[in-house]
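Incident log, support desk, overnight shift.

02:14 A customer reports that sequence design results differ from what the structure should imply. Their input is reproduced verbatim below. On-call engineer (initials T.W.) acknowledged and began investigating.
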């Protein structure tokens, strides 16, 4: 490699723009996407050849990596013009499609039809038995779950709305019981290789932990079932114990592989257990109970068909297939005794597991994923009322403000100091949403001001003034082409999140240009929303204003945030699931700011703690008691 090429290793998480550019080329070659990705470039950065995994030597009729290195070099030296001429049409096709992802603005069809079309597509793909979508592999897909819960909120009086709720609750319950869930330390693995959420790809990603925390707590607000809140608490405990920088930033991921007892690197080695280990650690009586509950078998519980190389042979990945009530009958114990014994056993096993060789920690602090984590901490405080979560949110937001801003420009990442790479649209949009959530949890308007400042900068750097929508990058690095993301996959697209941010900031700050920008953004993506809304479910839930009158309420809470009555008002307002509500805290610290933005609030400046409920800019009389507030929000 060193004799034939200049070699550049790119971290795709630090430079998602480069990764997406050349992944598009790989896919256009018909090779299919995936990582690791290798691309051979000319000096002007144009790709000449590429692929994903190459074996270390020629085998099974496939050329190995050394062969490819020599062949590409030979072609470049002897047939450079021919090679470039053959590649040029592909690059032109990719560039044309990228620039045409946004066509001229247009109008939407009926919004209810878009919502229903998205729901029907997802319901057709839904696994009615195991939850999730399609057969395998199965991914958590939080943007889809977010859409379904909001669809439920909008259409809960219809059977389709109730089905949407049930789809989410079943999926999350199966995930919480499955092997994709780390039952000892908390947190969720990347995806399940089978349809049962049993055997995962054991990598743990921050963006999954953050998004799943929010959707689990939404599910808890709706159902009041503690399986969801307990799973969310487990995630937050895992993040706090394993992914948190001393100054408050959150690391990116933990690898799937680690060394087994023989010192060999294997996927899942840190997480799986042999039956004999559990017997030895727990003793005969407690191990029987534990093994029955978590489906642990003497010969292992990994199905051979999903473990073709035998890496998991003889090992067990915990999965709950028997409810605790049935278990208590089987072992002649009370439910509380069963729970107590299982929790005691989990602590013993976790203590033993902590002695193992741990998976590699990716200690980059990625701005956009930390923005997602701000939302998770904020939601956790709002729902669970544990002040440590609010403290974590504020500490993280402060870390980002102090370490990832330079000359009013957001930076992409932090590792032993700030990166020199400037932020992408995802960094701005995810962080803005997180900051607005911190405001809602804390009442501190400094986070609104910071979010508003970032929104102005995002508009300046990434907005397409010709066709609308946000580019992923400013193209200052002169990459081959810019793109606009519309697809909501493992993470929501920047444009979907930006639409939500614009809606919230437009209401809170009353900036005239934001409402207009939101309308342009919707029009820019009208073709996708009208024809294939299922690819952008997060955007579908945020269509608003003249396109759709969301049943949102504005709660104006007047009084000192520390007073007992105001705290009780907040608890009542935030208790139930309402994804479209707005909250304005009218207290001594915020009063001048909000009255300047909303002059009508002068009439709400009274001496008593009170709540005003407004809909469509029409406000009701002040509410002074918890009982009257309960009646008003029913």
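02:41 Re-run completed on a clean worker. Output:
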């Amino acid at each position: 490699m060193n004799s034939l090429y200049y070699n550049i290793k790119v971290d795709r998480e630090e430079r998602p723009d480069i990764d997406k550019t050349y992944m598009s080329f790989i896919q256009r070659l018909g090779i299919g996407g995936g990582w690791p990705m290798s691309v051979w470039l000319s000096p002007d950065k144009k790709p000449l050849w590429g692929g994903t995994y190459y074996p270390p030597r020629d085998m099974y009729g496939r050329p190995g990596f050394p062969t490819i290195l020599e062949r590409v070099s030979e072609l470049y030296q002897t047939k450079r013009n021919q090679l470039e001429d053959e590649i040029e049409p592909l690059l032109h096709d990719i560039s044309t499609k990228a620039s045409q992802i946004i066509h001229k603005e247009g109008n939407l069809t009926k919004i209810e039809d878009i919502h229903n079309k998205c729901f029907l597509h997802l319901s057709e793909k839904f696994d009615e038995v195991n939850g999730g979508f399609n057969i395998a592999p199965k991914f958590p897909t939080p943007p889809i779950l977010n859409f379904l819960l909001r669809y439920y909120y909008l259409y809960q009086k219809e059977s389709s709305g109730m089905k949407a709720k049930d789809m989410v609750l079943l999926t999350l319950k199966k995930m919480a019981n499955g092997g994709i869930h780390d039952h000892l330390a908390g947190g969720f693995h990347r995806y399940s290789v089978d349809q049962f959420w049993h055997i995962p790809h054991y990598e743990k990603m921050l963006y999954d932990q953050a998004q799943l925390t929010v959707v689990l707590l939404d599910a808890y607000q709706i159902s009041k079932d503690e399986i969801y809140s307990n799973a969310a608490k487990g995630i937050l405990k895992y993040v706090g114990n394993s992914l948190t920088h001393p100054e408050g930033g959150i690391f990116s991921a933990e690898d799937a592989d680690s060394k087994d007892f023989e010192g060999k690197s294997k996927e899942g080695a840190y997480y799986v257990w042999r039956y004999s280990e559990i017997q030895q650690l727990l003793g005969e009586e407690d191990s029987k109970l534990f093994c029955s509950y978590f489906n642990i078998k003497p010969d292992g519980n990994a199905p051979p068909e999903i473990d073709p190389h035998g890496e998991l042979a003889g090992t067990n990945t915990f999965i709950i297939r028997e409810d605790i009530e049935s278990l208590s009958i089987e072992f002649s114990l009370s439910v509380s005794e069963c729970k107590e014994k299982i929790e005691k056993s989990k602590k013993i096993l976790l203590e033993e597991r902590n002695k193992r060789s741990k998976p590699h920690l990716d200690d980059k602090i990625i701005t956009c994923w930390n923005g997602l984590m701000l939302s998770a901490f904020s939601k956790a405080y709002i729902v669970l009322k544990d002040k440590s979560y609010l403290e974590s949110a504020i500490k993280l937001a402060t870390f980002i403000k102090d370490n990832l801003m330079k000359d009013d420009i957001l930076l992409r990442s932090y590792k032993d100091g700030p990166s020199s790479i400037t932020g992408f649209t995802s960094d701005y949009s995810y962080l803005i949403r997180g900051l607005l959530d911190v405001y809602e949890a804390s009442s501190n308007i400094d986070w609104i001001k910071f979010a508003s400042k970032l929104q102005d900068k995002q508009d300046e750097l990434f907005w397409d003034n010709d066709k609308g929508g946000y580019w992923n990058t400013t193209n200052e690095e002169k990459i081959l082409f810019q793109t606009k993301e519309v697809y909501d996959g493992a993470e929501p697209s920047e444009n979907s999140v930006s639409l939500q941010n614009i809606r919230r900031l437009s209401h809170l700050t009353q900036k005239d240009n934001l409402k207009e920008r939101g309308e342009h953004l919707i029009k820019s993506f009208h073709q996708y929303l009208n024809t294939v809304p299922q690819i952008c479910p997060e955007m579908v839930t945020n269509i608003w204003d003249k396109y759709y009158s969301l049943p949102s309420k504005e709660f104006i809470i007047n009084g000192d945030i520390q007073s007992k009555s105001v705290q009780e008002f907040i608890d009542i307002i935030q208790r139930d699931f309402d994804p479209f509500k707005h909250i304005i805290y009218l207290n001594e610290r915020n009063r001048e700011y909000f009255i300047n933005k909303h002059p009508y609030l002068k009439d709400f400046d009274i001496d008593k703690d009170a709540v005003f409920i407004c809909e469509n800019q029409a406000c009701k009389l002040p509410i002074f008691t918890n009982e009257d507030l309960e009646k008003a929000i029913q």
